[in-house]
Amino acid sequence: MGETDNKVSKVFLRESSGLVREVSPWSSMMATFALVTGGVPILIISWLWLAPGINWPLSYAITLIPTLSMAFLFYVAGVSMPRSGGDYVFNSRAIHPAVGFINYFGLFIAFALSLGLYSFLGARWFAYLFSGLGFYYGNSTLISFGNFFSSTTGSVIVGVLIVLVGALISFYTKFLWKFILISGVISFITTAIMFAFLTTIHPAQFSASLAAASGVKNAYNEVISNAESNGLSFVPNPLLYVFMGIPVIWYFLTWYNLPASWSGEMKTVRKNVLYSVLLAILIIGAYYILFTQLNLDAFGEKFLTSWGYISCNGVSDPVFNTFSSISTFTPFFALITTGNVFMYFIMFIAFWLPNFYSNPPLVIALTRYMFAWSFDRLFPEWFADVNSRLHVPVKSTAFVAGLGVVGVLMYAYLPFISIVDVTVIFELSYAIFALSAGLMPFVRRNMYESTVPFKRKVLGIPVVSWLGFLTFGFLMYALAITWGNPVLLPINSPTLISLALIYGVGAAIYITSYIMTKKKGIEPQLIFKEIPPE
C-alpha cells in the first residue's frame, strides 16, 4: 500500500466503498428522463397562467442554454470525481467542505420532500384516469373510484405503496436498472404516439366537444372570458415577455444532477454521464417544447391558460366546476374530442409512468448522498454499510423509504408543509454549485489540476470558471424574478423560516461532526483534500 493509500485509509471510513459498477449509460439516461419530467406535464398546463400568452417554445429554448451550461458543470463533477454522491463530493472539495455539505443538505431535503410529494400525487393520476372515464361514459362507479383516489385516504394508501415499491426495487440494483430501461423505452414509445395523436386535434373540434360534454353553451369561450374577468391578463407581446417563463421552466428542468450521485456505480463513466446529463437534457428540452406546443395547438392557448388559472386560483366557473376532479389533465380533453379510449390509456401511461419509475432512482440518489456523507465522517457510519450480497446500502435505503412514507403523511395531514417551497432551494443550490465550480481553479488549484480533465482556457480563464460564473449570474437573475411569485416562491414568514431551518440544521450537523471527528484524532480538513476511495 502506497503513502496516499495509507493516508486515505486513516481519514476515510474504509478503503473500499463496496459498491459495484453495473449501471449502463442508457439506463442512467432513462432515469434522468423520469426524474426530470415525472409529474411535470400536468404542471406545464396548470402553470401557463404564470406567464400568460408568452412564446413558450422560445422561452424553453432560451432557458435551455444556461441549463446546458449547468449540466456541463455537473458532467465535469461526475467524470472528475466518479464516486457515490459525486456532485456533492465535487462541491465539497471545490472551495470548502462546509459550503458543499450545507448546500447539498438543502438539496437532500428538497429531494426527500419531493419523494413524499410525488408519491402522494401519484394517486391523483388514477383519480384523473377514473374520473375522466366516468364523465365520458356517465358512469357513477368510475367517478366514485376517481373520488377515492383523490381523497386523503386513497392518496395516502397509493402514495405509501409507491414509496415502498420504489424502495423495494432499489434493493436489487441489477433488476432496478433493467426496470428503468424498460420503463423508459415504454415512456418514449407512448409519448411519441401521444404527440402524433395530438396533431389530429384542433381547437374548433375540441370547443364543440366541450360544450356537448359540459352542457354549457359556448363553454370554450365561457372559460376564457370568466378567467379574464377574474384577473387573468395576457401579455401584450409574446416575444418581449418570454423571460417571464424562465422561473417555471428552470423548475421543470431541474433534477438532472442526480446521475452524478450514482457515478461511482457507472460503467464507462464519461459516456454514462454524457448520456445521462447532457444528452438527457437536450432530449427533455425537445420533449417539453413539443408537449407544450402540441397541447396549445390542439386545445388553444387562451383556453388552456384560462383553465389552469381557474384551477389554481379557485375561480368559480360552471364548465370547470363540472369537471373539477379532472384538473388540468389534457388526456380527458382528447378523450371527449375524439372518443378514442385506447389513446386515453396511452396518454395516461405517457403521463404516469415517468412519475412512477422516477422513485427508485431518486431513492438511489438519496442513499448515495448519505453514503458519501458517512464516508466523509459527516453522518454516522451505518449509512455507508453495504450488503455484501446485494451490493446496496440496505440500512440507508430503508431509512430513505421511511422518509418517503413520512413525506406522504406530511403532505396528506399537514397541508402547511406545501409552503416549504423547493424552487428556491434548487436555484440557490445550483447557483452555489456553479459558483464553486467557477472558483475551484483559483481557490483549490491543486485539486482542480489533479482531478478535472477539462482545463481549456479562454482569455486565460478556465472554461469551467467562465461557465460557472455566467450560470451563477443567470440563476441569481432567475431567483430575483422568482421571488414573490404566487406559486413558486410566495414571500411569507413560514417559507423563510423553513428555508432558514433547513440550512441551519445542515450547518449544525457539519459543525457537530467536525468537532466529533477531531475528538477521534482525525483532522477533518485532511478528508476533503482527497477523493473518497472506490
From TrEMBL:
<feature type="transmembrane region" description="Helical">
    <location>
        <begin position="496"/>
        <end position="516"/>
    </location>
</feature>
<keyword id="KW-1003">Cell membrane</keyword>
<feature type="transmembrane region" description="Helical">
    <location>
        <begin position="58"/>
        <end position="78"/>
    </location>
</feature>
<feature type="transmembrane region" description="Helical">
    <location>
        <begin position="29"/>
        <end position="51"/>
    </location>
</feature>
<feature type="transmembrane region" description="Helical">
    <location>
        <begin position="179"/>
        <end position="201"/>
    </location>
</feature>
<feature type="transmembrane region" description="Helical">
    <location>
        <begin position="239"/>
        <end position="260"/>
    </location>
</feature>
<keyword id="KW-0472">Membrane</keyword>
<feature type="transmembrane region" description="Helical">
    <location>
        <begin position="152"/>
        <end position="172"/>
    </location>
</feature>
<feature type="transmembrane region" description="Helical">
    <location>
        <begin position="272"/>
        <end position="290"/>
    </location>
</feature>
<feature type="transmembrane region" description="Helical">
    <location>
        <begin position="332"/>
        <end position="353"/>
    </location>
</feature>
<dbReference type="Pfam" id="PF13520">
    <property type="entry name" value="AA_permease_2"/>
</dbReference>
<dbReference type="GO" id="GO:0005886">
    <property type="term" value="C:plasma membrane"/>
</dbReference>
<dbReference type="InterPro" id="IPR002293">
    <property type="entry name" value="AA/rel_permease1"/>
</dbReference>
<dbReference type="InterPro" id="IPR050367">
    <property type="entry name" value="APC_superfamily"/>
</dbReference>
<keyword id="KW-1133">Transmembrane helix</keyword>
<feature type="transmembrane region" description="Helical">
    <location>
        <begin position="125"/>
        <end position="146"/>
    </location>
</feature>
<keyword id="KW-0812">Transmembrane</keyword>
<dbReference type="GO" id="GO:0022857">
    <property type="term" value="F:transmembrane transporter activity"/>
</dbReference>
<feature type="transmembrane region" description="Helical">
    <location>
        <begin position="463"/>
        <end position="484"/>
    </location>
</feature>
<feature type="transmembrane region" description="Helical">
    <location>
        <begin position="422"/>
        <end position="443"/>
    </location>
</feature>
<feature type="transmembrane region" description="Helical">
    <location>
        <begin position="98"/>
        <end position="118"/>
    </location>
</feature>
<protein>
    <submittedName>
        <fullName>Amino acid permease</fullName>
    </submittedName>
</protein>
<feature type="transmembrane region" description="Helical">
    <location>
        <begin position="398"/>
        <end position="416"/>
    </location>
</feature>
